[in-house]
Automatic annotation (TrEMBL), chains A, B, C, D:
Its EC number is 1.13.11.2. It holds the Pfam family Glyoxalase. Residues 10-122, 152-273 form the VOC domain. GO terms for molecular function: catechol 2,3-dioxygenase activity; ferrous iron binding. It is an enzyme of class 1 (oxidoreductase). InterPro entries: Catechol_2-3_dOase, Glyas_Bleomycin-R_OHBP_Dase, Glyas_Fos-R_dOase_dom, GlyoxalaseI/FosfomycinResist, VOC_core. This is Catechol 2,3-dioxygenase. It comes from the Bacteria. Keywords: Dioxygenase, Oxidoreductase, Repeat. It comes from Streptomyces olivochromogenes. PANTHER family: GLYOXALASE FAMILY PROTEIN, METAPYROCATECHASE.
């Protein structure tokens, strides 16, 4: 039986690894418009302007790129404990840690593919310093006047050897709802979108054709408007940020998108869902066939080849990018 | 103790009364871009293009204007029964009916101010006829090529003699979460915003200074973009739709808005929330003081006088509008 | 010596041929939002909402597709006579006709590639009937509530065997200013953009690789916003209008674009220039090399193959489309 | 007889006076996104990203606010000399100077109200340093990643005791075309809009009820989109820039606008004309009556009181602002 909906409230933040911390930091602050909110060791804590928590992203210097951790906030202390209990009953080993500023204890485990997943409840509400105070009291921080000015971390897209198994982990042990998927002619699930919220997706699994484990396809930040994404494309053009594909509209989930690479090599999506939400409690999982998927994106753009080959960390760093 | 979150999934639809059914119908179809999905007696059933249910709005010919019913969809049959049980335990009399196409039984009760509230679970998923088939399978219906093309019914703003009592009804008996409120200097709550979802509000109570009961301040439809609202203002200008105020941005909830009157006299808001959502499970109720409220809207627009006086049905129909 | 700038005021309208008049008419009215303003014989006269003249487009039933006439409005009667005199002195034969409603005499000649070009001065200002009266007196007609709602005919892109010769015709005999061009490695001009106004282009010549004469690459209509073009793409998706490529941003001229085919087979561009204008009286012709052109569009989209092969009328109607 | 159209190519730049040079400089660079391009004495030269010339704005420290100079670029050396000759024949004394970097000789005179007007032809084309190189060669400079990122100086709105006389000066001696005006019931012209280009206005005269001379109502910068202006309003809200009125749409000229005050006290408009242009060579001057003007802006916003009282320099600096 599925767990009660709602034990996981939302995607909290991710930790991204980069072999070029300075370059990545410039990308996330100057280009995306995130704000630095502390440093510790090799890590820098960054936040989007509408995040109520301490940080939305941890950038950590590393020998290569990739994703280290995805942190999910529970809906309550009880919800957190309930999830931990279910995970352990299902044989998912975890450990408790308290290694992030602004957060209480995190229960750290992993999905079947090996991506680290951390659950937590306690979280300090962010208090903006004077120079970042917003004009309205229902907003955590002033909107930055520079860069794209993304509102929030929107979703994570994981590469995984076995999409279905990892999606099941999120659905049955964390309470996510699957909303859309791609099913190949042979029956295999090539990608699956799941959500903890009324957003139509918070996490995605995409098949890693290379068979490697624990890699990242991309993380995504939401903008307020499609115009923000068009402006982001122009800023990328004028400042040398590499655009992989877009702007265009996805057929699946209908998100308006732009894909760029940050200097560390990780793929970053800028996304805008318009006002689309999944409000139906009985939303039926939508399945796209291989033929439907082959039609490309919503307005006809063909899916770019590198979308099927580029993941982080790269398999052969010398050959990539 | 508060009920578990989530028994009410979302706002389903409303029934609006109009003394000018033909005029109102033209407004909702030609101007807003809703689609007629059946008629019965004095009522016409209408739907927005992204509604998965049979209808988003019932328009009913009547001697005057106003709101007859607000229907809320439960998250499951169990959730529905749980809410009914709690309502009855709290002394709220209700009755079961099955008077709407595409829906199963509705439990009809009322908020303390006398606004009819109906709860239901069973709902047929809409199947578009060929001429309204969408280009993408994750969308219920083609987006209309005419009018504003609103995506969904977004929220209801009720006038009520006692805002706090009615908000409590939604919070404690229906499981809504309050997100923002206005508190007058004397302590009275002048308006309160509540939500069943990750949207920052689904229902609002605004103080009715006239002391009358059961009236409507406005219903709102969400557009995909702020540009849709600017275009809507131009269409209103060229077709004679009465604009009360806007476009502008609310300080409270930060919604981009345009208020118009439909020919029956009911106030209709076109609203765009950008990508703002309330994801925090521990969102603290934000209180705006009388002085803060007096500052007007986000960018400085003063709140228009009629905003405090016009409600439907009008108290003195001859004097209104 | 170049003629004085300004004898030609602006692009007036074009006559488009279609083997499917009914289908084309539905496209231009229902989808683009043009208004029918009279019929005559096999022709229907259509206008965009911000055109001050009788028509922006003539649609004529024909055995095949293509462009019959481009009409340019002179700045005055004297300017018209001056252009006719210069054309005739340069050996361009022409004839006077008065075959279009709302217009005085047209001097009809042709560019070197054989595209019919008509010059005129007298033009009746459009008076909207009551049902199309705009809300503001500085606008000729109400903005349509349906379809894309394009503001004006923006430019014509001709296919031509010899781009340079045809551009010279426009520059030296009609007074157009060249603003941008593509020069192939061998020195040949593959495309050239020219303007009569502060718009950065009104006419374009593109090399026709097939060696055929007098064909059309596309005509373009300007929208008010990029959002209008994104909405147009969604309407195309939901109503079955064929999208060839876009939305994206051109590197040359920086126009935001969407290319669709109308049912008669002619390529139609929806374009938005933002607020870009060429105000400099000494604007230097900008030359893009073959290598620069090969980089694709502004944000990296590769130029679609059919862009180099599809023109109207098709060379082999059976094979095309 | 009117001079030939086109001797004045476009508005070049203005010199603005400010009692708070540091504050004003921060406003124009941090908030509007202009780039500093040199300093000289008490003046700083600033440019918008799409200006091909050396500067779009000169900011000069002064004891009070206001406008010192408006510079108009001629279409050629001959055009410049022709204008000077006509001005002198009409009794308008002028002097030649060469006091601005990047420009050749300027002929400095004044309109009847005493506003300094300078005409020039020679102008060096701007070459961006490496760090400001744009991504596309048809653009002078990279679009700034911070602030509003206005594209160009759009127009100047002068206060004047006698609107008609000053408009006549622009029309008959400089070759501007009047496009719209407000005529009071008594027959007096209260405001008049004129253009040198296909833009619907470049200069505006508004009646100064105080009877003082040579004052400024506002200068305006054009953005690419209406969304840029909505974003600008949000940035103003979060950074404390004073919003006087807007965003909204003007009835006259239909411009989408936002009015703010820069720290020196001068009113600055951010404006977006969409794609509206005046292409008709025989555009009839549109006259708005006092009653039409009283209706307010396009979507119903009432004209703000300070719009009729605030000009720079202020008459009584102590009382203003």
């Amino acid at each position: 039986m599925a767990p009660p909906l709602g034990d996981i409230a939302h995607l909290g933040h991710v930790e991204l690894l980069t072999p070029d911390l300075d370059g990545s930091l410039r990308f996330f602050t100057d280009y995306l418009g995130l704000t630095v909110n502390g440093r510790s060791g090799d890590s820098v804590y960054l936040r989007t302007w509408d995040d109520y928590e301490h940080h939305s992203l941890v950038l950590t210097a590393h020998q290569t790129s990739g994703l280290r951790r995805t942190a999910l906030r529970a809906s309550s202390e009880e919800a957190l404990q309930r999830r931990v209990k279910e995970l352990e009953a299902a044989g998912h080993q975890g450990r408790w840690t308290e290694d992030e500023p602004g957060l209480g204890p995190l229960y750290v485990t992993a999905d079947p593919d090996g991506h680290e997943v951390a659950l937590y409840w306690e979280s300090e509400w962010y208090q903006a310093p004077d120079e970042l105070k917003p004009g309205l009291k229902n907003q955590p921080q002033a909107k930055p006047g520079h860069g794209v000015g993304v509102r929030r971390l929107d979703h994570v897209n994981y590469l995984a050897a076995d999409v279905a198994a990892n999606a099941d982990f999120h659905q049955h042990l964390l309470g996510a709802r699957p909303t859309e998927q791609i099913q190949l002619d042979g029956g295999r699930i090539a990608a699956k979108w799941l959500t903890f919220t009324n957003k139509s997706y918070d996490v995605v699994y995409t098949e890693d054709w290379t068979g490697s484990r624990g890699r990242l396809h991309h993380i995504a930040f939401a903008t307020d408007t499609r115009e923000d994404i068009l402006r982001a494309a122009d800023l990328a053009l004028d400042t040398g940020v590499f655009i992989e594909t877009g702007p265009h509209k996805h057929a699946i989930q209908q998100t308006f998108f732009l894909y760029v690479y940050e200097p560390g090599g990780n793929r970053i999506e800028l996304c805008n869902p318009l006002t689309r939400l999944v409000l139906a409690p009985d939303w039926p999982l939508i399945t796209w066939t291989q033929a439907e998927r082959a039609k490309g994106q919503a307005w006809g753009l063909k899916t770019i080849e590198s979308f099927h080959t580029h993941g982080t960390p790269p398999l052969d760093p010398a050959a990539d990018h």
